[in-house]
Structure formats: structure tokens, C-alpha cells
Amino acid sequence: MADNNNAIKTEAEAERELGEQMKIRRDKLAALQAEGRNPYEKVRYPRTHTSLQVTENFDELEGKTVAIAGRMTIRRIMGKASFAKFLDGDGIIQAYIRRDDVGEEDYARFKQSDLGDIFGITGRVFKTQTGEVSVHAEKIELLSKSLLPLPEKFHGLTNTDIRYRQRYVDLIVNPEVKDTFKKRSRILKEIRNYLDDLGYLEVDTPVLHTLEIGAAARPFKTHHNTLDIDMYLRIETELYLKRLIVGGFDKVYEVGRIFRNEGMDAFHNPEFTSIEMYQAYSDYKDMMDLIENMYRALALKICGKGVITYQGEEIDMESPWERLTMAEAVKKYCGADYYEWKDDADARRVAKELGCEVEEGDKATKGHVLIALFDAFVEDKLLQPTIIYDYPVENSPLAKRKASEPAFTERFEYFICRHEMGNAFSELNDPIDQRERFVKQVNAKRAQGANAEVDEDFVTALEYGMPPTGGLGLGLDRLVMLLTDSATIRDVLLFPTMKPVRK
Length: 503
Fold this sequence. Notes:
By secondary structure, the chain is α+β, with helices and mostly antiparallel strands. The chain is built from 16 helices and 18 strands. Helices cover 37% and strands 25% of the residues.
């Protein structure tokens, strides 16, 4: 009990101290405003260089005057002179501020400032006795006042809940976090370059849909006031992109924000970014080659090597990826042979013997059992990049059936670090078959209470004729996690979804 009381007391003391600091800072702001020096009235500052530009070009800039700007993160006052460090978008740079150079009044105001305040500094570039590139200030100007103190006197912010809720503070006190998001931007740029060089056209399709389709993902629902209709945030970009293939575009892709009203964990966020690409006159094997080559190129561009490390394990992106049918993978990792099962009942018997529960119960088909065995015994073994292809038709409503084995579809997923990273098909272009599968999907969703409908316009598009097409979708966030060695999706989303804090 004593420990709990101490914890409550400590928290109360921390809140009281924060309140006192906030009052002091607001009093300082009021004093500045009374002097006619309101820092929030500053419109712009004519910065000439960033911190990185100064440090990287020291030989050229030594002795020359530059104008830098940034947030003060560290300060050491030594009477008539001070050293301070300032954080900008590129990094941190030190400034030497001396009373005799900037003037007595400005120096006194600088000494009254707080960590977190944003300054503009004009001065000469030099190196200290310790060899640190610095700016000897000739003029210093307060550009914005920070009314809240930085956490732990800039020693770092480690509480992940606060880091995700207040990413702006995280970026200030943990500058290395910026590197992840700079790398994310580079990854997206390289993907665009790669696809553009292959002749793909980037397009945008609607985020708001008028139908809740029969797909497995649950959508977010909203209402359009002017049209007085319910609308749904998209759960994929697929159907509109394939409409464009019907319309005559041969290669299209979209970097799309997707919304799914589902669970949250280290690999799932309700809104995320997908990249879907479709290529006419190709099939799923063409898409296998595309994704393997693209990942290999990304690893070299972003990480500088083909073998990378993710959470302490080496991942070989350079060597050819293993390719297994789902039936081959299940046989390899648990010994069950799909092709030896006499019928559905025999398949269910094998699953029971292996201790694998099949959700469909006594209605489970051989395809359902194969999927259940894969989930139970295979996925968590796929550390190295692996393509699993030829999925049962039971869980592939948009993929084309294999002509040689109608129980399977021309679909693959690829796995890295024991997680599914993307999904691809030889796209179904038979409008009659497609409508039948949509109806089954919709009926299943309605049985669960959803207001699902068949996308008749998409079926109409197929009735005009869609060429044989290969399509692939990948989650950008999981790819960024892999290439930045990030353990959770929240580390690669600037503002992940968080439950509001009720005060």
C-alpha cells in the first residue's frame, strides 16, 4: 500500500512541477509581449543553411556568415558566454553565444529563455577546440516560445503510448525517429520509380464507396448528407483498378489509403497504405517475378545490401525466393498430403489427427482443411522470403481457377519473417463466374448481419471484356517495418490509431 501511495504522490508532484513550469513560461511570454517582442508575430526567418549543410560543407563555409534556425535542446551558460545546441530538420548544431557579440539585452533575454524555444542565429562558422563544427553568433532572435517543457530535460522519451500519441514530441526528443520516416519516404519513391520504369501508370480511385461489398474485411461506414446515402470507406483499391484495365490501360497502380474496421496488433492498424498493381496480358507468375525483383532492388537501394537484418535475424533478399504450392508447403512442414485425401471427410479426419481445428466443422472441404493446416503448421516457419501459390478456391473469390486443377486458383501470397506481406492473382475475368462468387460472398456477409451487396457495376465492366490480367497488392507499412527493422506497425506510422484518453 505504501508503494502505491508513493507512486500517487510522485505523480502528483510531477504534475505540480509541470504546472509551475508552465506558469513560469507563460509569465516569460507575457513579459516579452509587454515589451512589444511577441515571438508568435514572426512571419519568416531568412535561413541560409541547415545544420547538415553547415557541418558537411565546413571547409567551404569556415569563417563565413550563415543563418541557421532550430529548437534549443541543450544549453550551458558560462557567465558572459554560453554554448547551446539547436535541432532542425536535418540534425543538431552547436552555437556559441557571447554577450559582447549579440549585445547585453539580447544576451540577457537568451539567458531567460527555455529549452524547447526556437531561435534564429546569424554568425560565423568555426570549430571549437574539441573539433565540433559550430556557429559563433553575431545575432540571435527568438522565433517561437515553447510553453511546455521537453520530457526529461531532453534525455529521451521512452513511454511508447506517449510517443505514439504525441509524435511531435517524440520527433523532438528522439531525433533518430525521423530517420525511419525519411526512409519510408525513400521506399515509396523507389517503388514508384521501379513501377514507372516498367511502364506502369499511377492513378487515384475513390476512397468513398456506395456499396458494402461482400469481401471479408469489415468497412467503416459514414453518411453523405447532400446525397442522403450511406457510404463506406474503401477496404481495397482492386475493383476500380481492374475497371481501368477493362478501359484499356495495360499497367496501373495505386498507392492507396485503406480502412478496415478490424483488430489492431503489431502488424495491423485500422488505416494503412497499400500498393496495388495490375498488368494486362500477364498472370500470377509474372507478378511473382515482379515482386521478387522489386524487393531485391529495394533492399539494395534502401539498405545497401541484399542480406538485411530484421529483429536480430538475417533475411536473404538477394537469393532466389523459395516457391511452393500450398499443398507442397503443408506436406513439407506437417506431412499431410492433400493428394492422398480421398474426400472431404478424409481431409477432416487428417486435420483432427493433427490436432487442427477447422472452422467450417463438418462442412469443411479439402480446401478448407488445407488452408487450416497451412495456418497452423506452415506460416510461422516462413522466415526467409517464400512464395506460396495455388490457393484453394474456397478462400480466393477474385482469382482465376487453374485450368488443370479447378479446385485451386492461380493465387499466391509471399511471406517474410513469418508474416504475409502481399497477395497476388491471375485475375478472374469471367463475369458469370465472378457474379456467382460475389453472390456467395454477399450471402455469407448478410448471414453475419452486414448490409452487403454485389458490385453489379464491376460485373458489368467484366461483361465488356477484361484481358488476362495479373494483379498484386502489398502492404507498404509492413514493407517499411522490414526495411527499417521496426518491431511494430506503430513505429512506421507517424500518427497510429490510438484510443482517446478520457480525463
